[in-house]
Structures are given as C-alpha cells and as structure tokens.
Amino acid sequence: MMIRLKNIEKVYRTATVETLAINGINLDIAKGEFLSIMGPSGCGKSTLLNIMGLLDEPSKGDIKIDDQDIRSFSDKKLAHFRNEKLGFIFQSYHLINDLQVLDNVELPLLYRDSSAKERKALATEALEKVGLSNRLKHFPTQLSGGQRQRVAIARAIVGRPQIILADEPTGNLDSAMGNEIMNILINLNKNEGTTIVMVTHDESMAQKTHRLVRLFDGSQVQ
Amino acid sequence: MYKHLFKLIWNKRRQNFLFLSEILISFLVVFAVFSYLTYYYKNYIKPLGFDYNRVWSVSYNGDRLSKNADSLGIFYTNLNKALQAMPEIEAVSFSSSNYPYSSSFISTGLTQGGKKFNNISDFNVGNDYQKVWSVKLVDGRWFTPEDLISKNKGIVINETFSKELFGTAKAAGKLIGDFDDKNKFKIIGVVNDFKANGDFLPANNVMFSQLDTTNLKWASTLLIKVRETAGASFESKLYKFMATTMRSAVEIQHVDEMRNAKNKETIIPMLLFIIVAGFLIINVALGLFGVLWYNINKRKGEIGLRRAIGASGVSVSTQMVLESLILATISVLIGCFFAVQFPLLNVFDIASSVYLIAILLSVLFIYTLVIACSLYPGRQAAAIHPAVALHED
User: Fold this and answer.
1) In this structure, is residue A9 part of a structural domain?
2) Could you confirm whether the keyword Protein biosynthesis appears in this record (chain A) (predicted)?
C-alpha cells in the first residue's frame, strides 16, 4: 500500500474552542492509484491532504507511507522523506515570483545532493513534459494561470516522487485550462505510475480519477 | 544553494536596497568609530617617555627680574640652589612654557641633507630637566653645564626622529642644520619618544635645547620633582617663597592633575562619539531586526513551500541567516571600497595600520550584528508550520 491512514483524527484547539477537523478516517491508497477527495468547504479535505503530505500531524491515528511509519521521524528526516517521496500541487500555485520558471522548478532538487548541471537538465525535462520548455526564463508573473499551474506540476514531478498530492489544482482555472491540467495529471499517473491524491470541488474532474472519496464534517461518507 | 540565494537576492534587489543602504551606512559609521578608537588605543599603549608623578610646575612672571642676562643668570643659579636645598625637593629645572600637558606649543624646523623637518616641538630646558621627568636616554648623554660653551649648540632629540634623520645609524655626535640651515646643532643624545600632549595623542618629534643666558629671559616655568613627603604645607611654603623671590604672582600646578585634564580633552569627545554611534547602531540593529521579521512574515508562503518540498526547519533558518549575510557582504564590500581609500590617500596623515585594523573590526562587528539580528527571525521562520504557512498565503 502506498498510503495507509488508520483511524486518523485531527483536532484544532484554541483556549475556548475545540474543533474536530478529521474524525476517524481510515483510508488505503494503492500504488499507482489516482484518488480524488471531494466534500463541501471546511469538511477537512485539505487537512487530510496535509496529513498525507506530512505537512501536518494527526492528533490521533497512524499513517504509513510506502510502508514506513513516519511517527518516529525527526524534522530533518521528515523533510528528506517529503523531498524524495512526495510532490505537491496547490490551488494558488505557490511559485516564488522572484525566481524564473526554471529556478522555481529546480527548487526541490536544491535540497538534494545534485549538481547544478543535473538540476538544470531535470528541470528542463520536467518543463518539457508540461509543455513549457519555451518559458524557462520567464518569471511567474509573466505567465497565465494555466501556465503557472503547469510550472507547479513540473516542480512537483522534477524530483520523480512516487506520490503527488494536489490541492484543488484546477480550482483557479477556467474549464479549458482545468482540463489541460487534468490531462497532464492523468498522463503522469498512466505513464509514470505516479500515485495521485487530488482534492477537488469539481465533480467532472473527480469522475476522471480511479476512486472518489467524499468527506462530510471530517468523516468519510463514501 | 549559494547560487540560488544570489539569484533570489539579485532578483529582489529593489526590495533589498534599503537593507543594503542601512548596512553600508552602519559600516561607515562603525569604521569611523573604530578608526578613532584604534588610533587612540595605539597611541595609548605606547610608552609615555617620562614620569609625571610628583612633578609640580611653578609658573611665574619674570618681568620684574633684571633685564641683564648675567645678573639674571646669577639670580636663577641662586634660586636653583635655594630650591634644591629644600628637603622636599628632589630635582629642579627651568623650562620654556611648553612642558608636558601645558597646552603651550613651541615648534621649530631642522634641516638634514637639504631636507626640511618641520613641526618639531622645541623644549628649552635646564640641566636637571632629565632628572625631573626621569627621561630615559637611548643614545648619547644629557646636557652638562660645559655644553653651554661648545662651538655647536647641543640638542637632544627623540628616538623616532633620530630614525627619520639617520635610520639605524647612531645620531649622537652628528651635526644638523637649523631651520635655515645657517647654524649647526650637535646632537648629543637621543631619548625615548615623548608623549607631551596626553596619553591618547601621538608623540611628536621633539628637540631639547639648553637654556642659556641668551634665552633665560624666556624661561617662565620652574619644574620641580618633589619627594613623597611633600604635601600641602610644603606647597604653601613653596608658594610664599616663590612669590617673594620672583616679586610676582605664581601658580603651582600638579602635573598629574594636568595630565588628567589633558586626557579628558580626548576622552570626553571620544565618549560622546561612542554614545552617538552606539545609539545609531542600536537603531540599525532594531531596523535590521524589523526588516528581517517583516520579510519572514511576508515570505510565509515561500517558507511553507520550501518546507513542503524538502527543507528542514534548520535549512529554512540557515537560508534566512545566509541571505542576510550575503546582503551584508555586498554592503561591506562597497563599504570597504570607501574605507580603503583612507590609507591609500593617507587621509589625516594617520598610519595605514590604524585604518586596516578599523576595517577588520568593522567587518567583524557588522557580521556579528547581522548574525545576532537574523538568528531569532531565522528561528521563527524555522518554527513556521508548513500547513499553516501554505494556507495563509
């Protein structure tokens, strides 16, 4: 199993309020699976994705990625694990506007032992895969929303991760751009065998994936 | 990683301009302070060249004394004998008004091998001047009464001046021309360098010449080395004796107090400068701290992203500190370009080593300041939770 979540709970506490964001989720995601997560706003989709991406810790429950129990990992080891195994795509792209496209895509490789030449070759290759080989020296602000998301996808795949976690990747795009991005993700899943977990509000996009999980008030309803 | 940081800094050069300017101005201010302090410290650690303890100066007005040089000579000889007969007095010497810490300057010029040497402090002194100040000879000898009748007037110079004139060769016994090179002086001795203007100011080149009957009328000061037993009652007795003998008002000053007053003339402006510079540095430190804090809050999304794609907390913190250090290095390099002009152009005629030490200290200070100001914001950046940072952006 690529991702195994067992009885995951996430509680946010303030001085006066306790909010249960995720309530006892059990989920197994197989290697090479393309899974989508849907649900109304505030149902805990992004929280669940963050927990899968090791960006957030569950309050309760176990999580295994690629059969490794990550609870005992130090901050450094966790960072290394994220770098090697996971790729992230965000709704708002999260590109660094002060860096050119090529440099943005190279970012994950900076935290690995790779030479500048190797980084450049891998980043160029990733940008070719998303059809942006002619935009290497552009800054993100010079690109359209769809192009920015393609840069974000290139950044997510440049390190050849086994898992891609996409948080509403088409949420900021029109339907044509959204379909374009979706096709890139489907091809990645099909051709490279990358496991993809995608949070979406768009039913039509979700229908294109292998499996759909629905959440409501932090609980899995489908 | 360094190439990446350089790219990031270069692409954000407009945003970084204020930070760079702040560091550059701080560097220049700190350089000025350190140049000032290094200069004074280097002077301070040099030996004084004399002992001021238990030396009193007695200033008098000799207008009512005889105008006849021979009579005046006899008068001063008798006065000298009378003073030396006092048990509280160890040594007595007449002097021109420009004795150490007196704020009176008499300078002259000398000529050696056609080359003029100007701004030489000219001390007209009595035979026991060396005893009064415990001046140490490094070559030759001090004046004797017989020197008054020698063909070439004898002079004693200081060690540094001797090296400027003759290099490593011995100066004692050599002749040197006066300002116009019409008369020749004979150097009879060389003494240690003589810091007559205070502990923090450099020792000028000096020339001691013997008071003789022709210039005795210019003598207006008696320098007295007293014994440890000499107290207020002796001072009172001395005052009465001198006032009666000189038939004028006299002023007795303790040279150690004059030294303290003279040193304060340097220390007080120095302290004021340090305080003003200190406030400026505190402001700069707060400014840096604020800028870095603001940057981190502004870059929360980027920090969250870096954490998500593989940066550990330590590497985020290191990146923040490194970025500050790279910016500081750019400012320091520009600052060094300006600072290095001071020794190259010999500004203020101060030794190059003073400026070079000041540059080194300023560089160290700026890096310490930048590291100190960026460590805490860096730690705060490392503590940012990636999920929260990505969500906020």
Assistant:
1) no
2) no
Mean pLDDT, all residues of chain B: 89
Domain boundary among the residues B202, B220, B249 is at B249
Q: Which of B11, B55, B29 is nearest to B227 (CA)?
A: B55
Q: How far apart are CA B296 and CA B270, in angstroms?
A: 38
Same-domain check for residues B187 and B306: no
**Contact between chains at B7 and A99 (C-beta distance less than 8 A):** yes
- Across the interface, whether the CB atoms of B1 and A110 are under 8 A apart is answered yes
Q: Read off the pTM.
A: 0.80
What pLDDT, on a 0 to 100 scale, did the predictor assign at position B220? 83
Q: Does the residue B26 lie in any domain?
A: yes
Chain A nearest C-alpha distance from B285 (Å): 26
In chain B, what residues touch A46 (CB-CB under 8 Å)? 391
Contact A111 B311 (CB under 8 A): yes
If you count residue pairs, one on A and one on B, with CB atoms under 8 Å apart, how many are there? 74
CATH of the domain at A55: 3.40.50.300
Q: Is A98 in Cβ contact with B314 (below 8 Å)?
A: no
Q: Could you say which DSSP state residue A64 is in?
A: E
Which one of A55, A84, A116 has the shortest CB-CB distance to B308? A55
In a domain, A66, yes or no: no
- Structural domain including B311 reads 2-45+261-392
Measured distance CA(A157)–CA(B97) in Å, rounded = 88
Quick one: closest CA in A to B13, which residue?
Answer: A98
Regarding whether B367 and B220 lie in a shared domain, the answer is no
Distance from CA of A80 to the nearest CA of B (A): 5
Q: Is residue B295 part of a domain?
A: yes
* The pLDDT value given to residue B392: 60
Residue A112 with chain B: CB contacts under 8 Å: 310
Instruction: Identify the residue among B16, B300, B305 best suited for mutation to test binding to A, counting A beta carbons within 10 A and taking the highest.
Output: B305
Looking at the structure, do residues B270 and B240 belong to the same domain, yes or no? Answer: no
* Phi and psi torsions of B171, nearest 5°: -85, -30
Domain ranges, residue A143:
33-59+73-220
Q: Is A63 helix (H, G, I), strand (E, B) or coil?
A: strand
| List of chain A residues with pLDDT < 50 | none
| pLDDT tens, position by position, B45-94 | 999 999 999 999 999 887 777 777 788 888 888 999 999 999 999 999 99
CB B216 within 8 A of CB B72: yes
Which residues in chain B have Cβ-Cβ distances shorter than 8 Å to A136? none
Statement: residue B172 has pLDDT above 80: yes
| Predicted ipTM beyond 0.90 | no
Do B309 and A116 make contact, defined as CB atoms within 8 angstroms?
no
Q: Are B212 and B148 in contact (CB under 8 A)?
A: yes
Give pLDDT tens digits for B21-54: 989 999 999 999 999 999 999 999 999 999 999 9
Cβ within 8 Å, pair B393-A56: no
Number of structural domains, chain A? 1
Determine, yes or no, domain membership for A160. yes
Q: Which of B249, B275, B305 is the last residue of a domain?
A: B249
**Looking at the 3D structure of chain B, how many domains does it have?**
2
Q: Encode pLDDT of B268-316 as tens digits.
A: 999 998 999 889 888 888 888 888 888 888 888 888 889 888 888 899 8
Is pLDDT above 90 for B336?
A: yes
Is residue B53 situated within a structural domain? no
Report the pLDDT value the prediction gives residue B393, as an integer from 0 to 100: 52
Quick one: B249 exposed, middle or buried, by C-beta within 10 A (0-12, 13-18, 19+)? exposed
CB atoms inside a 10 Å sphere around CB A122: 20
Residue B50 placed within a domain: no
Neighbours of B16 (CB within 10 A): 20
Q: Which of B8, B301, B309 sits opposite A88 (nearest CB)?
A: B309
